[in-house]
Amino acid sequence: xxxxxxxxxxxxxxxxxxxxxxxxxxxxxxxxxxxxxxxxxxxxxxxxxxxxxxxxxxxxxxxxxxxxxxxxxxxxxxxxxxxxxxxxxxxxxxxxxxxxxxxxxxxxxxxxxxxxxxxxxxxxxxxxxxxxxxxx
Length: 136
Hints:
By secondary structure, this protein is mainly alpha-helical. The chain contains 2 helices and 2 strands; from the N terminus they run H-H-E-E. Strands 1-2 form a two-stranded antiparallel sheet.
């Protein structure tokens, strides 16, 4: 009752069609939001991977500059306090999947252990920019 009068037949609530349109719009907006959320998660992981690779490569170079040789493995960077811990690869969710590349030694360095000169992700798959994670 409005103002003491009974409601008229055409003035009651929403029609079924109006409710269906609103439900469809909410569904469309929810689908778009979920897609954006998933993409933002992937981009955050890729950004973290790039940062971890940069940090490890910088510390490998610092180790070489300080000691005149490359570290034997990533664990050497931790034991010598160049890294606090081996970072977790955000794509594989493991710190054991890093792929290391051995340093190339010249004839004058033949008596030394080669050590590692670079590190890459062991993750399979393609990044959002179209490159393979293992190429980074």
